[in-house]
Structures are given as C-alpha cells and as structure tokens.
Automatic annotation (TrEMBL):
Residues 137-156 are annotated as: Disordered. Residues 4-117 form the Hemerythrin-like domain. This is Hemerythrin-like domain-containing protein. Pfam families: Hemerythrin. InterPro entries: Hemerythrin-like. PANTHER family: HHE DOMAIN PROTEIN (AFU_ORTHOLOGUE AFUA_4G00730). It comes from Actinophytocola xanthii.
Length: 180
C-alpha cells in the first residue's frame, strides 16, 4: 500500500507532466483537451490533499496550521484561474496568459510541498502514513473533476460536499464527453 507522502509525490509527477504537455502544445484545440485533463487531475489531487494531507500537516508539523493555510490559499487561487480558463477561448492571448500563470503557480506550489512532505515523512509514523495514503487514493475516486472555488477547503465541510460534487462532475463529463 502506498503511503500518503508517496501518493502525493506521484501525483505531483503526473500533474507536472500534464502541465508540461499543456505548455508545449501549440494547437488550440489540443491545448484545450490537455488542459481539461490537467484540470480534472488537479481538482482530484487538491481535493484529496485537502481531506488527508493538510489535516495531518496541521496536527503533526510545527507551524502546521500556517503551512496548511498557505497551501490552501494557493489551491483557492489556482481554482479561480482554472474556473476562468474553462470559459476562455483557447485561441486567445488571455488563455495563454492564464495557462502560463497557472503552470508557474502550480510548479511553485509543488516545490513548496516537496519540503513539507519530507518533514511529514519524518514526523508521522509509517503505519499512519499508509492508512492516510489509502484514504487519499480512495478520495480521488469520488472527488470533483472541475474547479469549485467556493467550496470550503477544510474538514469536515469539504468531505461532505466534495463527494456530491464529484458525482455531479462525472455526470457532466459524461454528458459533454469531456475526457477526464
């Protein structure tokens, strides 16, 4: 079973590659499709982090409340940008500007979290990290695939709301044939 730190780092590698693909694509239609998949993956990843990673950071790490609050603020900023991107034509300069900003912000977020995850591995018992990793992976299966910037990023509200939004998002994805 993958532990929480490894699960989050694996997601970081996947998200990083997806964002590289978006940034490298020159075709507007292809770029839109790549971005939609990256948004879905980031939405699932951030939901799982909010439910499992940040509550643990708050509890285990010195200064954990501040660390978690900073990362949650980055999530909120990213969700607002992702939400706007869903309504901007991929062939416009505004789309390029938003994508560049999102890619840069997410890369910075991933770098910052890498240090936090290293500290978490040292501070948290391995068995607990394995249990949290299992919960993290399970939560991604029912998490939203679209940004919901107005949804709370902290427990318990996020756990209650996210499952329902995830179901609604997957229905919307199926109806619109959105590849997530």
């Amino acid at each position: 079973m993958t532990d929480l730190v490894d699960a989050v780092l694996d997601d970081h590698r996947v998200v990083g590659r997806m964002l590289d693909d978006v940034a490298a694509s020159g075709d507007a239609r292809n770029r839109r499709e790549l971005l939609e998949r990256a948004i879905a993956e980031l939405s699932r990843h951030w939901t799982a982090e909010e439910q499992f990673l940040y509550p643990t950071v708050r509890r285990v790490l010195p200064g954990g409340d501040e660390l978690a609050d900073q990362r949650l603020a980055e999530h909120a900023d990213g969700e607002r940008v992702m939400n706007e991107l869903q309504h901007v034509d991929a062939a416009t300069p505004r789309f390029d500007e938003l994508v560049t900003g999102l890619v840069d912000a997410v890369r910075g977020h991933l770098r910052t979290e890498a240090d936090m995850l290293s500290r978490l591995r040292e501070a948290c018992p391995p068995e607990e990290l394995r249990e949290l990793g299992h919960g993290y992976e399970q939560s991604k299966k029912v998490a939203p695939t679209r940004p919901h910037p107005l949804v709370p990023g902290t427990a318990p509200a996020n756990k209650i709301v996210s499952t329902g939004l995830g179901l609604v998002d997957r229905v919307r994805d199926a109806i619109t044939r959105r590849n997530t």
